[in-house]
């Protein structure tokens, strides 16, 4: 992804008439190549971290896009949206119960069980306070979401809302703050 090393290597090779393999280990050129390599590694790590952080919102948008497509890409009522939010919140319940039943009595919970429990409780808390999702109540936004192809920049074109368990709907911005 990052091209700093390639650019530096190309410039040094050009300066040395194509012989880049005969560098002294403490020369300016070798230090320049080393700095470029470190920068590329750092940028790659940042990109991986950013993709990992963005993955839950992409999955959430894809989940509600699938629900929208099942209903013919039409705007939905609040009751149907809340039912689907409840399904999204409790999607890990079966796996959690399975792992919990498989554990012997008196044994501590496995890491996977703890992660699933934390994920479900976090989603339940978010739903109580206001579940962050694309606005499915308007025709225009439903049409835009139905064309979602799975990329992060496309999500900025959508209108987002927070829907609480009590039925309150508040407009929100993208990307979410503190989610």
Automatic annotation (TrEMBL):
It holds the Pfam family Tma16. Signal peptide: none annotated. Residues 1-33 are annotated as: Disordered. InterPro entries: Tma16, Tma16_sf. GO terms for cellular component: nucleus. Belongs to the TMA16 family. PANTHER family: TRANSLATION MACHINERY-ASSOCIATED PROTEIN 16 (PTHR13349). This is Translation machinery-associated protein 16.
